[in-house]
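Table S7 (text form). Paired inputs.
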Amino acid sequence: MDLSVIIVSYNVKAYLDQCLKSVIRASKNIDVEIIVIDNFSKDDSVEHIKSNFPSVHLIQNKSNLGFGTANNIAAKQATGDYILFLNPDTIVGEDNFELALKEFRDFPNLGSLGCRMIDGKGNFLPESKRGFPTPWVAFYRIIGLAKLFPKSKKWAGYYLGNVAESENAQSQIHCGAWMMLSKEALNKSHGFDEAFFMYGEDIDLSYRIMELDYENRYFATSPIIHFKGESTKHSSWSYVKNFHQSMDIFFKKHLKTNARSYSFLIRLGIYTKASSTIIRKYLFTALPILLTFIIGFFLANEFISFWESNYRYPNGGHYPSIFIDRLLPAYLTLWVGSMIINGAYSNNASIIRYFTGFITSTSVLLIFYSLLPSDLRFSRILIVISCLIFFITFLLIKFLLNIGSRDRLLRISQNSVAHVNRDSSEPINQMTNYDISIDDLLTQKDPLQFSEIHFYPEKIDLKKIIRAMIFLRKNNLKYRFKYASWTLGSDDYQTSSDLSIAALSKPEIKRTKNILNILITFVVIIGIPIFIWSPKGRYVIKNLPEIFLQKKIWVGYISKKPIGLPSLRDGVFCHSGQLTNSNLIKFADIRYAHHWRPEFDIYAFFNGLI
């Protein structure tokens, strides 16, 4: 047996299906055994493998044992001369295995091989090639020096910045998403250290293989797609926590001298980086809103002063101070709030969304103005002109902050899709969709002709898809991988055929549900004096802290975490009544996710109070 491919799976049925199909295609000219070890998935992954991939050696765990432990179990049953540990959310090209095995023949002392990886948008994943994470190397990476000096051997040593993405070279540390080892090296190193549950086990194994005097290398010739690369997780607190714990274990194990000092240094760097990432994220979201408010208020105030002195009171006089001090900020707050609710500040908002937001916000403001007492209604024309000033300010800020760049605006306004090697007998909307071959795609001069690319992988060489994604990586396109049973996406990562049409998977519907959740919270706060007199009312009040902490929402699914549906926080109330039959519960949750409307939550909330 030439090669044993080991895949640890946990609740990723669609990705696993795609991965196995690519592995089978890459195994055409060599003797390969495929081992899938399932960590107690609950999404029918096991049944799917048994039905669709009978030749796969399937191992079923009774619980989630973690990445390292599961791989060790499978490795003991592997019979190949070489072992490939592969993540289920990957696609390998047809020549990947053959060329990788050639590396082992060309370098007899090779113990471990790491592969060049791109994410679901074609971007290079820096964890493909890494140096040994000494405390200072890890610290430079965590505080961002590696980004400032990306090609420096010293400052960017964590990701081997001095080694080009497309260059085969020596490396020290490999990523467990694609990690090929000789069976001899794996046996001598005793496999993964099971003390690492998540993150770090691949670093530890790579280091121990080098300690056995084997060579580790980076293999760039045949890149793979890794949809959920580490780079997608760096800003989450769970990643920070798990990464720090893994580094703690690693340093205590391999750098026993001063391990406590190293641990403190890494902890300091990690929490500094995570805090700055989160602050930047929220600042970037809030900045255009704050700038619209500040600049819009200043410009509107200047225009009102001009209008006041030249038209309204040319002979002296001015509007009451309440107009500028109280009403104008209130108008602006209401206008900006309406724009937020309409989704005009979202990163993927279209030009149409801008103008519909403007019309809606201005209408809301005029209605509010008409409801004011007559002594507070100073000038309708000033309200309309102020709204125009606010809108012009909003547009300028969006462009200046590069939220809605030329590329994005062109793509969003066109919203066109390129279908690569599609079955042309299937009808499509010719206005926004067109067919293209993979070879034509690789020679495109103007990728702005489309905003999305839909690949049909069963009809295309996978290595050509990977080449195309690398070729087009600078254009920030969305990709879809179309199969008969589901579609996998590069931006939302997993979109099953059911999830892709669910209302609650759409950003605008999610936004509406969140706004409704906030409005219900206001109703509860205002109604506390009434709710406190009934047991169900007190139950509602009791849940307010968890609503504020975003641990719950007012109305959610009946099931705790239904598989294959858009994720929601636990609900204070369920959307439907007293259902006990599991099939009925599943059907009700699907119906709720697919056809959600505000009245569903309103009815469920007030029904819960009765």
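Next pair, protein 2 of 2.
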Amino acid sequence: MLKHGSLAVAVVQRQVMIVQASRTHSQREQWVDVYTYTPFGERVFLASPIPQARISSRDILTIFPTEESACQPTTGMLELPPKAFSEYVELSSRTQQRHEQLF
């Protein structure tokens, strides 16, 4: 399901974030250990204040293909390719709208 270093979009603490698998996980695992990244600028994400998390596999919204891997200019920073970033923005806005409808 999720290989070590794979990138995905997931809901972490009610926020849509970019996550990176900290180890390989099988499809049967209910919990996934990840590094979390929050948006910083256009296509750039920084390690979040809580850089590691264990999330439910149900909270993963999408997994990016390995060929769409992000550039890591420095430790704690990711730069997504344009296509992956637009997918993140779309999922983030959809999730935000869903939360607004609930309240």
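Residues 82-102 form the longest helix (21 residues).
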